Amino acid sequence: MTATIEKVVLPPIPAKRYFTIGEVSELCGVKPHVLRYWEQEFTQLRPVKRRGNRRYYQHHEVLLIRRIRELLYEQGFTINGARNRLDSHGAGSPDAVVEEGEGAGGPAGRGEASAAAAAVDLEKLRKELQNVIDLLGH
C-alpha cells in the first residue's frame, strides 16, 4: 500500500507590501508558531520586526515560506534537506520552483508522471510570475 500526498491549493497572494504573521499563516497553510520556528532554521527568512516585535513579511518571503512548506510537507524533505536544497538552488531561483518533482528520495518517477508533474510545476510558476507582474502594476 502506497501513501499519496495531495498538493494543497493555497490562496493567491494579494498585492500588498507587508503581511502579518496571521495573514502569512493563512496564505501558506502553516501555523504562526511554525513560521517563528522556521525563522530560526532558515537564514533566508528574515521578516521585518516593528513595534512590539511584530513581524511583517514581504511578498518574496511569503513565496519562500510556500517553497519551504512544499519541500517539508509535500516532498518529504527534512529541515536540513530543505535548507540544503534552498542553499544549493537559491531560495528564489526559477530552479527552486521548476525542480519540485524531486524529493528526498531523488528524482520523481519517469515518463508520463514526471511530464504531468512538470506541467503542474510550469503552471504554478506561471501563476507566481503573474502575481509578481500584478504586484508591479504592469
Automatic annotation (TrEMBL):
HTH merR-type domain span: 18-88
Domain of life: Bacteria
Keywords: DNA-binding
Family annotation (Gene3D superfamilies): 1.10.1660.10
Keyword DNA-binding among record annotations: yes
Pfam family, one: MerR_1
Region (Disordered): 83-112
Stretches of the chain forming a coiled coil according to its record: none
CDD domains, sorted: HTH_MlrA-like_sg2
PANTHER family with a match to the protein in the record: BLL5018 PROTEIN, REDOX-CYCLING DRUG-SENSING TRANSCRIPTIONAL ACTIVATOR SOXR
Name of the protein: MerR family transcriptional regulator
Organism: Paraburkholderia translucens
